[in-house]
Design a protein that fits this description.
Length: 313
Amino acid sequence: MASSQGLRIGFVPEHFSTPLHFAQEHYGLDATLIPFPSGTGHMVTALRAGDIDVGIGLTEGWIAGLGKEGVQGDDGGYRLVGTYVETPLCWAISTGADRPDITSVDALKGGRIGVSRIGSGSYVMGFVLADKQGWLAQNQQQQPFSETVVLNTFDKLRGAVNAGEADFFMWEHFTSKKYYDAGEIRRVGDIYTPWSSWKIVASTKLVPPPGRAAGSAGSAAGEADARVRDLFEKLDAGVRHFNDNPEEAVRYISTSLDYSEADAREWLKTVRFPQRTEGVKPEVVADCVSILRKAGVLVDGKGMEPEAMVAQL
């Protein structure tokens, strides 16, 4: 791809995407924004297939994708390059509206978990929940749930717990709240990520590992594509606009992203975007890998090590 072309950026079309929208609307971000309502796991596949250049998604999904067994001998297709959200994510734990047998998180042990995709945040957080609840066998060979039901979209996850195809699923709190308020699904509990929740990744064609040439004519060997640096500049401007114009943010979220105005205002109180989006703290990646290994999502000694997951621009 020639360096004059705009980036193809994958994102989740939820309230968190507001600064990205502002970066394009107000600050000239030259990019095609491609929504992935099914989440981070789908973007991992798209990056590796060359369908997108950059992804903005959940920390645990990106790290699980690079840390799984079999990735070590490959470049993994992408690298962590930036931090999009500094605050943790609140995952709501939901079941069907008419499931009197499920009254607490304890009732979910050995049940059927609905996930968007294998390797997605909804999948990874199931293991983090199981670890927190003490459901994982010491040898970690026994699965904490009887079945993992892959359902791709939030809509299908809601339908599955009401149809009895799955017992529960996990999704972001404010995205789920509308459906609690309507009585479509029922909240069982919640769990927060033990790490900052959203990261930015770029294809290894744009941020090649040391010693490999970049994929565009505008970059020297081993250097990041100039469009990635421009993305950070425009994103930083979008974040500043978000922070300085909360009423505009509320209007956009409540009119374009299917949230109520009240929920949009409540969410604004809980989220913090970084002043500088470029860069990833090594300790955040190492801590996430450590927890995912403890939870049995990743295996110590297999897959990519934490320090190899981050590209230095």
